[in-house]
């Protein structure tokens, strides 16, 4: 290619890099804002987005998850957009490194999720079960999230009804949540054992497996975007040496 064509190609890719990362930056800011909103006023968020109750995000703290993801996207978007605009090799290399680390972490997480499902269940049990015992029936937002999740997904606790043993709810109500007994008014250990309602982890895992094609397609799309972003940033980085 002629010098003019090379320069035109470089300028085009630079502009695309800026626009792409500007979109990431704005998306990160939006997620960060929503995360702060959920943390400050979770009740109104749940009233508006109640249809998302079957999402796996309801098992974890939505607010902190959105804040972390939003902050990461803000950093990535800033490094890519500002680095391309200023033609800074340092910022472009930082952008490449951050995206590469995230890509490796995603691949590792996918491998762990596929190979060590039992380990993931053990880790979640260690994290979520104590929260159910302490906060279910005490924290209104936490209780509402789990009530909606258990009702919509038709599940009980993380593993099963025994997650509520020795919990605040069990001690004060002398029984389990109605969802653990298929919405019967009386829900004691005998009825819960007979109903054998599955835990939310297993139910959500089954939903993920049912929609594995869609989840795999989304994951592949994200991976392709990350690879493209790394390739473009490295192209700009190398072309700056020739300028």
Structure characteristics:
mainly alpha; 2 domains; Cd81 Antigen, Extracellular Domain, Chain: A; 10 helices; 243 residues
Number of helices: 10
**Mean of all residue-level pLDDT scores:** 80
Beta-strand content: under 5%
Largest sheet: none
Radius of gyration equals 23 Å
Run of helices and strands: HHHHHHHHHH
Helix content: over 70%
| Mass-distribution shape | elongated
Oligomeric state as shown? single chain
Low-confidence stretches: 51-60
Total beta strands: 0
Subunit structure: Interacts with SLC19A2. Interacts with NTRK1/TRKA.
Protein name: Tetraspanin
Family: Belongs to the tetraspanin (TM4SF) family.
Disulfide bonds: 155-200, 156-181
Describe the structure.
It is a single chain. The protein has 243 residues and is mainly α. The protein folds into 2 domains: 3-114 and 218-242, no CATH class; 119-203, Tetraspanin (Cd81 Antigen, Extracellular Domain, Chain: A). Helices cover 76% and strands 0% of the residues. Helix 1 (3-40) runs antiparallel to helix 3 (62-86) and helix 1 (3-40) crosses helix 10 (212-242).
In short:
This is Tetraspanin. With 243 residues, the protein is mainly alpha-helical.
List strands and helices in order, with pairings.
Layout: H1 3-40, H2 42-48, H3 62-86, H4 89-115, H5 117-135, H6 140-153, H7 168-173, H8 189-195, H9 200-210, H10 212-242
């Amino acid at each position: 290619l002629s010098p003019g064509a090379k320069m035109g190609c470089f300028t085009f890719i630079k502009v695309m890099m800026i626009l792409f990362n500007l979109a990431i930056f704005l998306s990160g800011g939006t997620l960060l804002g929503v995360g702060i909103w959920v943390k400050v006023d979770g009740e109104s968020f749940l009233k508006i987005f109640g249809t998302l109750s079957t999402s796996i995000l309801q098992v974890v703290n939505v607010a902190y998850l959105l804040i972390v993801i939003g902050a990461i996207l803000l950093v990535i978007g800033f490094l890519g957009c500002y680095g391309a605009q200023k033609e800074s090799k340092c910022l472009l290399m930082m952008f490449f490194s951050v995206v590469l680390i995230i890509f490796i972490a995603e691949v590792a997480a996918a491998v762990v999720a596929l190979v060590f499902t039992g380990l993931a269940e053990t880790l979640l049990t260690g994290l979520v079960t104590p929260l159910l015992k302490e906060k279910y029936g005490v924290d209104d937002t936490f209780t509402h999230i789990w009530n909606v999740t258990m009702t919509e997904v038709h599940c009980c606790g993380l593993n099963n009804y025994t997650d509520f043993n020795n919990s605040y709810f069990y001690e004060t109500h002398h029984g389990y949540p109605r969802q653990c007994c298929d919405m019967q008014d009386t829900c004691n250990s005998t009825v819960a054992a007979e109903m054998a309602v599955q835990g939310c982890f297993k139910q959500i895992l089954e939903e993920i497996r049912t929609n594995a094609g869609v989840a795999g397609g989304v994951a592949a799309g994200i991976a392709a975007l990350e690879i493209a972003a790394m390739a473009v940033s490295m192209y700009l980085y190398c072309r700056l040496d020739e300028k």
